Amino acid sequence: MPSKLTRPASRHPLPARPAAFGLSSLHTAHIAGLSAEKALASLNSSFDGLSKSEAGRRQREYGPNRVEEVRRKALGLRFAREFTHFFALILWFAAALAFLAEHLDPGQGMGQLGVAIIGVILINGIFSFWQEYRAERALEALRELLPQQVKLLRDGQVEEAGAESLVPGDVVLLEEGDRVPADCRLIESFGLRVNTATISGESLPAARHAEPDRNETPLTARNLVLAGTTVVSGQARAVVFATGMHTEFGKIAHLTQTTREATSPLQREIARLSRLVAALASGLGVAFFLIGQAIGLPFWDNFMFAIGIIVANVPEGLLPTVTLSLAMATQRMARRNALVRHLPAVETLGSTTVICSDKTGTLTQNRMTVKRIYADGRFVALEPEGVAAPAGESIAWLLRAAAVCHNVTFGSRNGKAEFLGDPMEIALVEWARCAGWGAEGSRKIAEIPFDSERKRMSIVQQDDIRRTLYCKGALESLLAVCDTIQHDGRVLPLDASARRRLLAAQDEMATAGLRVLAFAYRHLASGEEGREERLTLCGIAGLEDPPRPEVAAAIERCRSAGIKVVMVTGDHPVTAVAIAREIGLVRGEAPVVLRGDALPKMTRAQLQLALDAPEILFARVTAEQKMLIVQALQSKGEIVAVTGDGVNDAPALKTADIGIAMGIAGTDVAKEAADMILLDDNFASIVSAVEEGRAVFQNLRKFLTYILTSNIPELVPYLAFVLFKIPLPLTVIQILAVDLGTDMLPALALGAEPPHSGLMQEPPRPRSERLLHGPLLLRAYVWLGVMEAAIALSVFFHVLEEGGWRYGRMLERHDPLYLQATAACLGAIVLAQVVNVFLCRHPSQSAFCSGVLANPLLLWGIALEAGIIVLITYTPWGNEMFGTAPLQADVWLYMIPFVCAMGAAEEARKWFCRRFMAD
Ligand code: ATP
C-alpha cells in the first residue's frame, strides 16, 4: 500500500552493535535506527538536499562515487592463458620435440628451430594479450559513454547528473527500474520494492519504507537501499550515506570474482575449428614424416620438416584476429549508436533472423503532442498548435488529471532546465500548463504506479479541502474501474452506449495512428484509502508520436536481409497497425494482429504456427507475454533480438539471443540485462549493428581463406622434392617466415574489414553453417592455393634453369644458385599473397569493388610484408638466417605476369559465380 512515511524522531537510544559488524555497520545501523529527519541531520543534509557548494566540497573529500572495476582475473593469470591455449600447446610440443632432437643429434639446426618456435609463441602470446587488453579497455571506454544517471536534489532543485557525482548527504529520487547508485537511507517512499539479488542473492523483491528500523543489519534494514540493488517498483526520496568503495557493494566487489561467462556460439565455433585445424596440422606433419621415412630421407631432415609442417599449419593468428574483428566491429557499432556490452554478442547479432521491436520510442520518435480530445460525447477541436483546449467541466477535469497524474519533475539536465520523465507524461503536463493548469495548491500523498499489466496509474492528491484520486491509462483499463462519466457538467452513469461511443472514438483516433489515453477521477472521503474503483471518466486524449524518419528504410533493409521484424507493443492494436503501415512494416490488407491476453491461452504450437504469418504484430502485450513470443520464436529455430526498456522486460532481454535496451528511455535494470544498448533508442541503429555483426563472420572467413591459401605453396614444394627428387624449393624456416611473418598483418587486416555493400542483401546465415565450410576450403586449398604453388614452383625452376641447372642434379645447401632459387620461391609466395589479400576481401565480388582506403590496416600490412621480404632477401642477416640470396630485378619482373594471371583467374571465377550461381 502506498504511503508517505516520515515519522517523528525515535526516543530510544541506539543499541550498541556487536563489534563484529565493524565501524561502518555500526554507522549503517545507526542511520537505520534514526528517524528520517535525524538521519538527514546526522549527514548535515536536508529534505531538499545539499547545496552545490557543499556537494563540491564533499566530492573533494570523499571522491567520486565509483566502485573500482573488479579485475576479472589477475592480469598475470590472463597473460599466462595466452601461452597455454590449444594452439600454443601444440607449438610448445613442437618446440620440445625440436630441442629433444637437438639434444640427441646436435648440429642439425633443430635447436635453432626450437628457439624460432618459442619466439613465435612469445610474439603471438604478447600480441594476443595486448590485443585483448586493448579490446577490453575500448569496451570499458565505450561503457563510459553511457554513465548511470541519477535524479538528485541540489539547492532544492531536481537535477539529472552522473551517479559518480554523488556524495554522502545527497538526496536522490529513485523510481522503478533505477539501479540504486549508492547506499541510501529512505526518507520518503511510495510502494517501494527493491531487488537485492546482487548483494544478498535473494531473488524476490523486498518492500522498503522510510520508518526507523533498529534491529536489522545493513542488508535487511527495511529503510535502507543499497548500491547495486534495483528498484522493482514504486518511488522514493533517499539520502546517501555511503558512496563508492564504502558501500556494501563496494566492499563485496573487493572480494568477489565475477562469475564465469557463458561461451558464445562464436567461441564454441572457434574452439571446434581450433581442434579441427590442429588435428589436420598434426596429421599432415605425421603423414609427411612417414612419407619421408618411406623414401629414405635422412631422419633429422625429415623430423625437422614434420615439425615445420605442423607449425606452419597451425593458424596462430586466428585468436588475435577474432578479438580484433570483434573489437573493431564494436567500435564501428558505437559510432552507429549501438553499444555492445559483451564482445561475442557482436557476432550473434550478425546471425539474427527476427527482431522483436517495441513501438514507442524505437520505431517512433517518443516526441508526443496532444492532438485530439474526446469529451462530453464529441471530439473537441484543439487550437492549431494543439495545446490549448476550450473550457468545459469534463475538459477541466481532464486537464487537472493531466496536470497532476504523472511522475514528471522540473529540473535540469546537462545544465538545461527542462521537464524530466516519460515523454508522454511531459506532453500531457505541457498541454495542461498551456491551458493554465498545474499542480500548485495540492500535493501528492500516494501513488499506485503504472504497470504494463494494469495499463494505468493513479495518484492521490491532497488540496486544502479534499483528497482526490486521479487515474489515467488505456481506455479498456479505465472502463473496468469507472462507473460514471462527466457529460456537459453532469455526472452520468457510464452505460453501454456511452462505453460504445468511447470505444468508437478510440478507434477513430487510433486509426489515425494516435496513442489514446483515458482520464478519470474520484473524490475520496476523509480517511478513505485511494482505490481504483467507482471512478468518473472525464474524457480521452489522442497523442501523436510520429515515426522516426529513418525507420522505413531500416525496415526495408531488414526485408532484403531476410530478417523478420515483429512489432511487440503495449499500445492499442489499431494504433499499432496504423503506425506499422506508416513505416512500411505492414503492407498487406490483413496483417495478423495478436493481442497479448490471447497468448497465454494459445498452445506453444498454435503460437509458433501464428508466427509463420508473413506480417504479424502483437499489441497490448505485457512484459511476460513478450517473453512467450521470444520463446516461441526460439523454438522455431530463430535467432531472436528483442528490445525492451522496463524492469519487467529484463527476463525477455536475457532469454533472447540478443537483448537490446534503450539508452535514453531504458531503465538501469533493462540496460543491465541487455547485450546491447542503443544510445539513440533508434530501430535503425539495430539494423546497422546487425550489419556489423554479419561483417565479423565474413571477416573471419576472409582471414581463413587467406592464411589457408599459403599452406598449399608451402606443402606442394615439399611433395615435389620428395616425389620428383628436385632440390627442396622452400625450407622450413622460410615456411615459418611466411606464416608467422609476412602473412600475419595482412591476415589480421582482413579481420578488420568494414562491412561490404551487399551484406544486407544476403539472407541470414543458417545456425548450422560453420565458419570453415566446404566452399571456403575448396577455394583456399584447391583453387587459390594450387595457383600459388604453381607460381612458386615456376619461379623456382626459372631461376634454377637460368643458372644452368638440369633435372636430376642435386644442389648443395649453400650453393648460391640454390639460395637464389629458394629465395625466388619464397618471394613468389609473398607476392602472390599480396595479390591474394585483395582477392580475399570478398568471396564473389570483384577485388576492384572494395576501396583500398576503406581499410588502412591492409596497406600497413602489405607495407610490412614488403619490408620483411626485403630484409630476408637483401640483407646479410636475412640471407644468413633464412638461407636466401639477393634476387635480380628480372626475377621479380618474371613473377608479375604469373600473379596477375592468378588475379585474373580468380576474378573470372567470381564473375562466373555472380553470373550463374546467384540465387
Ligand atoms: P511500447 O511497448 O511499444 O513501448 P507502450 O509504451 O504503449 O508501447 P506500455 O508502456 O506497456 O507500452 O503501455 C501500455 C499502455 O499503457 C499504453 O498504450 C497506454 O495506454 C498506457 N500507459 C502507458 N504509459 C502510461 C502512463 N505513464 N500512465 C498511464 N498509462 C500509461
TrEMBL record:
**Where are its TM segments located?**
83-101, 113-130, 276-297, 303-327, 776-797, 817-840, 852-875, 887-905
Provide the GO MF annotations for this entry: ATP binding; ATP hydrolysis activity; ATPase-coupled monoatomic cation transmembrane transporter activity; P-type ion transporter activity
One GO CC term, this protein: plasma membrane
InterPro entries in alphabetical order = ATPase_P-typ_cation-transptr_C, ATPase_P-typ_cation-transptr_N, ATPase_P-typ_cyto_dom_N, ATPase_P-typ_P_site, ATPase_P-typ_TM_dom_sf, ATPase_P-typ_transduc_dom_A_sf, ATPase_P-type_domA, Cation_transp_ATPase_P-type
Compartments it resides in = Cell membrane
Q: Which UniProt keywords apply?
A: ATP-binding, Cell membrane, Magnesium, Membrane, Nucleotide-binding, Phosphoprotein, Translocase, Transmembrane, Transmembrane helix
Q: Which residues form the Cation-transporting P-type ATPase N-terminal domain?
A: 30-103
SUPFAM superfamilies according to UniProt: Calcium ATPase, transduction domain A (SSF81653), Calcium ATPase, transmembrane domain M (SSF81665), HAD-like (SSF56784), Metal cation-transporting ATPase, ATP-binding domain N (SSF81660)
In the record, biological process GO terms are:
proton transmembrane transport
Q: What is this protein called?
A: HAD-IC family P-type ATPase
Q: What does the sequence similarity comment in the record state about its family?
A: Belongs to the cation transport ATPase (P-type) (TC 3.A.3) family. Type IIA subfamily.
Main location class: membrane
Task: Give the top-rank taxon of the lineage listed in the UniProt record for this protein.
Answer: Bacteria
Tell me what topology the record assigns in the membrane. Multi-pass membrane protein
Q: Coiled coil located at which positions?
A: none
